[in-house]
Amino acid sequence: MKKYAKIITAILIVSMLSLALFACINPDSDKEGKMTLVLLDGDNAQEYVVDLSKLPSGNSQTGLIAVLDYLQKEGRLTYSVDGTLLTQVGDLKNNAAENTWIWLYTDVEADINVTEWAVQTTYKGKTYTDSGVGASQMSIKNGCTIIITYMIYN
Known about the structure:
By secondary structure, the protein is of the alpha+beta class. 21% of the residues lie in helices and 33% in strands. It has two helices and nine strands. The protein has helices at 2-22, 63-73, and strands at 34-41, 44-51, 79-82, 85-89, 92-93, 100-106, 120-123, 126-130, 145-152. The strands form two sheets. It has a six-stranded mixed beta sheet with strand order 2-1-9-6-8-7, covered by helices on one side. Strands 3-4-5 form a three-stranded antiparallel beta sheet, covered by helices on one side. Strand 7 (120-123) and strand 8 (126-130) form a beta hairpin.
């Protein structure tokens, strides 16, 4: 009986380690195609078109963080996080004294904020809804656009 308990325990441990290894991979993100990242500061917009096949697969960064990490390594923009909070992307920076925070908008249906507090913005005639998930959980899809801008709390 002890022999079977040890075998079952070993199988459970291997299964849990396998799940932990693959838990950080976002299966909702595409591996091919292109997406657009927009940094929007008032009327000033910077667009970055990202070839999804260039994003490293199996890395520890997922979602939008993988895109930002790739662009930073390419020298195209800088970003920083504090824990899980984006604190700076390009020239956009959180400013607690002015209640100004980095905010994410997307056109990926699975990621949009569906609460009554959802906020929308328009860019180039298309409406985008703020993300209902954090940057690392966002789905990166072929043809999607993610807008990073400010949210000002009054």
